[in-house]
Design goal:
0% strand, 2 helices, mainly alpha
Length: 85
C-alpha cells in the first residue's frame, strides 16, 4: 500500500514539475513577445517622428524659397487672401 502511494506521489511530483516548467516557459515566451512588441512600437514611433520632422523641414524650405522668389505684388495678394481667411 505504501509503495502505491509513494509511486502516485512521485508521479504527481514529476507531473507538477512538468506543468511548472511548461507554465514558466509560457510566461517567458509571453514576456519576450511583449518586450519585442514594445521595442518594435518604440522604433516605429521614432521612424514616424523622424519622417514628420523631415517633411516639416522640407515644407519650410519650400515655403521660404517661394517667398524669397515671389514678387512684391504676389506677396501682397497672398497676404490679403490669408488675412481674409
Amino acid at each position: 500500500m505504501i509503495g502505491v502511494v509513494r509511486s502516485l506521489l512521485s508521479g504527481l511530483g514529476r507531473r507538477a514539475v512538468l506543468y511548472g516548467a511548461l507554465a514558466l516557459a509560457l510566461l517567458a515566451a509571453l514576456w519576450v513577445a511583449f518586450r519585442q512588441g514594445r521595442q518594435a512600437a518604440a522604433a516605429n514611433f521614432a521612424v514616424r517622428r523622424a519622417d514628420a520632422r523631415v517633411r516639416s523641414m522640407q515644407t519650410s524650405k519650400d515655403i521660404r524659397h517661394d517667398v524669397q522668389n515671389a514678387d512684391r505684388a504676389d506677396l501682397e495678394r497672398r497676404a490679403d487672401h490669408w488675412m481674409r481667411d
